[in-house]
Design goal:
The complex is a heterodimer. By secondary structure, chain A is mainly α. Chain A has one domain. Chain A is about 80% helix and about 0% strand. In chain A, helix 1 runs parallel beside helix 5. The longest helix of chain A has 26 residues. Chain A is globular and about 40 Å long. By secondary structure, chain B is an all-alpha fold. Chain B has one domain. Chain B is globular. The chains are: A mainly alpha, B mainly alpha. Chains A and B meet through helix 1, helix 2, helix 3, helix 4 and helix 5 of A and helix 2, helix 4, helix 5, helix 6 and helix 7 of B.
Chain lengths: ~120, ~160
């Protein structure tokens, strides 16, 4: 059961983040005051990719809720970071972001760190 | 009566919708927002985990179990913090690349382990501290790169 939950967390998080990043860049730079956050909330309601992103993240969130009930937080949080490598690759190949050597090396170090943290 | 026509230029229309072409936030601003995002996520997760561990009923695939769980004050507080986290993280994604945001916000994993040790009395050993060091080294490397790809932004 825990591996099924983990798969839902990883898949949902990666798809949700990819869709969010795409839509938020398309929407332009947003402010983080109350009006800015309200505007983002409004964007969520009218942009279909953001709605889909929320649905993916909701699936990941509920799977996370179920996982933390039976597994320690220090396992559940780092284990869900498997989405991390997937997202960096998707950012490069799907979102066409400039992922150079330094950023890729940094991401790899963070990934190794997260794996160690999960031990 | 003279008809007044509002001649909106494309740029004004764009600004009216709240969408501005990125003027380029400083890295300090981006890191501060990332820090706020990490704190909200860590405390949201902590509150959620705390609330979930208090529940006596085992969670399954029944949606009613989750609705019942949301009535717990710790679960509800955790969810409120995570909604705020989601909105602020979306703002952060409008400032920086996904491949920049993901490693930078990975400090949340370190905080998750630290908070797990402090409040939930979970064990944190040598491997976890080494992992913490690697995460910070990785964040330093990623943090030294440009926070967004302008050519990508222009193509959207």
């Amino acid at each position: 059961m825990r591996w099924l939950l983990l798969s839902i967390i990883v898949g949902g998080t990666a798809a949700g983040d990819l869709l969010q990043s795409y839509e938020m860049k398309r929407s332009g730079e947003q402010k983080v005051d109350m009006r800015g956050l309200a505007r983002i909330l409004r964007l969520v309601l009218v942009r279909k990719f953001l709605l889909l992103a929320i649905a993916c993240m909701a699936a990941a969130f509920f799977a996370f809720m179920a996982l933390v009930q039976t597994q320690p937080l220090s396992f559940a949080v780092p284990a869900s970071a498997a989405s991390f490598a997937l997202e960096t690759a998707l950012a490069k190949f799907v979102l066409k972001e400039a992922v150079g050597l330094r950023r890729a090396a940094g991401a790899a170090l963070v990934l190794c760190g997260v794996i160690l943290l999960a031990k | 009566m003279q008809e007044i026509k509002l001649n909106k230029t494309p740029s004004l229309e764009f600004a009216f919708e709240g969408a501005q072409i990125a003027s380029g936030r400083s890295k300090i601003e981006t890191f501060l927002l990332a820090l706020a995002v990490v704190f909200l996520n860590s405390f949201g997760n902590l509150s959620l985990a705390w609330g979930m561990k208090r529940l006596t009923r085992q969670m399954g695939l029944n949606p009613l179990d989750y609705i019942r769980a949301m009535l717990d004050p710790f679960v509800a507080a955790g969810m409120a913090l995570l909604i705020l986290w989601l909105l602020m993280r979306m703002a952060l994604m409008s400032w920086a690349d996904l491949s920049f945001v993901i490693p930078i916000t990975a400090t949340g994993y370190v905080m998750g382990a630290v908070l797990g040790k402090l409040f939930l009395h979970e064990s944190v050993g040598l491997a976890q501290w080494c992992g913490t060091g690697l995460i910070f080294a990785g964040i330093l490397l990623v943090g030294s790169t440009a926070q967004y790809s302008p050519q990508h932004r222009a193509s959207l």
